[in-house]
Amino acid sequence: MDFWIKREELSVKLSRVLSSGFDRYKIISMLAQGEFWNTELEKIYLKAVEREKKLLEKALTKMCKIRVDNLKLAIVKSNIPAGIIADLLAKEGYDIIAVVSRKGTVSLRRGNNRINLIPIARRLHGGGHPYAAGGNLKYNILDKILARLGFYRKLDLIVKAVKESLNEILER
């Protein structure tokens, strides 16, 4: 998937088809025979895009917008794949996008290419790459039950991690 650079449209489309549960061995076989795309894949891709659109609309209703220093931080409470929502929020000017799952895992994406997410991820007990990283809010059973009911706790830890990382995250 081009490491989230998304230069190749076909890689983006194939990634969406694979994430929909399509048989990866069938795709490998097609590619090995020189077939890169067909009508079956197109149908699956269009269904995946429609599903993502619905997930996006729902996720955006559960978003916190926070300013940390001069940075715009979006915290999205959802099980939506971070890459899907990150593209949209990056276009809207968010520097850092954090997607929090019901289990308390945090997926980080950057909307600003000057941001290095690794210091934030480390403070959230995780790691990754400058452009895509992750961490964990260490949810206990009560936190997980509350998140299923729509009450996400410990989001302040994300804001704290961003604040504590300010001197490290901006690449020059």
What does this entry look like structurally?
The chain is an alpha+beta fold and 172 residues long. It has 2 domains: 2-57, no CATH class; 62-169, DHHA2 domain (Diaminopimelate Epimerase, Chain A, domain 1). The protein has 7 helices and 6 strands; from the N terminus they run αααββαββαββαα. The chain has helices at residues 9-19, 24-32, 39-60, 82-91, 118-123, 141-148, 156-169; strands at residues 63-68, 71-77, 96-100, 105-110, 127-128, 132-136. The chain has a 6-stranded mixed β-sheet with strand order 1-2-3-4-6-5, sandwiched between helices. Strand 1 (63-68) and strand 2 form a beta hairpin. Helix 1 (9-19) packs across helix 3 (39-60). The radius of gyration is 17 Å and the shape is globular.
